[in-house]
Design goal:
The chain is an alpha/beta fold. It has one domain: Aspartate Aminotransferase, domain 2 (3-Layer(aba) Sandwich), CATH 3.40.640. It is 36% helix and 20% strand. The protein is built from 8 helices and 9 strands. The strands form 2 sheets. The chain has a 7-stranded mixed β-sheet, sandwiched between helices. The chain has a two-stranded antiparallel ribbon with strand order 6-7. A hairpin with a 2-residue loop joins strand 6 and strand 7. The longest helix has 15 residues. The termini are far apart. Bound molecules: pyridoxal-5'-phosphate. Pyridoxal-5'-phosphate binds next to helix 4 and helix 5.
């Protein structure tokens, strides 16, 4: 019997009526971009993660891209990315002309190896992207210490980790930005900003 690569139908089945009602309400309202549903979603997600702001976007990839754009990542900038992740983690750096620098991953979690990350830092390094792979939180205490010491931005790729916690605090609430993703037939991503980075946002 063939095993499909991705089959969400069983996961969606118990929620189908709720999805259909929500889609129907949006269809009838004619408000397909932004609108009250998105505002409510942003409020609820921000509350859930314990952060001030959440922004609804089209995908987790766009959430990563927007974060990198807000930080002004571009040619000449290096961004530390784990060598094992979904390709969007690094492709958003490439799309802006920056250079993803591969950092080895730990053998126990496949999350970023922080000793190797420190070895890869140089004067062009601008940011570090911890990916909370398979819902496993990265060592955010150590990552924050490294970022503080070397003046790096942290963009958490929490696409696979909505609801995961590190030391009792939800992932996505540690970095300067974080990106989440929802695997669903209505794909959406979102981004939150922990504190104002006015000097880079401009
Ligand atoms: C680790 C990781 N980062 C980023 C993404 C990108 O999210 P999206 O597919 O919503 O663009 C994914 C998606 O699977 C992911 O697994």
């Amino acid at each position: 019997m063939p095993v499909p690569l991705l089959d969400l139908s069983r996961q969606h089945a118990p929620l189908e009526q709720r999805f259909a009602a929500a889609f129907d309400a949006v269809l009838k309202s004619g408000v397909f971009v932004l609108g009250p549903e998105v505002e409510q979603f942003e409020r609820e997600v921000a509350h859930y993660c314990g952060v001030k702001h959440a922004i609804g976007l089209s995908s987790g990839t766009d959430a990563l891209l927007v974060a990198m754009m807000a930080l002004g990542i571009g040619p000449g900038d290096e961004v530390l990315c784990p060598a094992f992740s979904f390709f969007a983690t690094a492709s958003c750096v490439v799309r802006l002309g920056g250079t993803p620098v591969w950092v080895d991953v730990r053998p126990d979690t496949f999350n970023i190896d922080l000793e190797d990350a420190v070895r890869k830092i140089n004067s062009s390094t601008r940011a570090l992207v911890p990916v909370h792979l398979f819902g496993q939180a990265c060592d955010m205490e150590c990552i924050q210490a490294i970022a503080d010491k070397y003046g790096l931005f942290i963009v958490e790729d929490a696409a696979q980790a909505l609801g995961a916690k590190y030391q009792g605090q939800r992932v996505g609430s540690f970095g300067h930005f974080a990106a989440f993703s929802f695997l669903s037939h209505q794909k959406s991503g979102w981004l939150w900003r922990r504190w104002h980075v006015g000097h880079t946002v401009g």
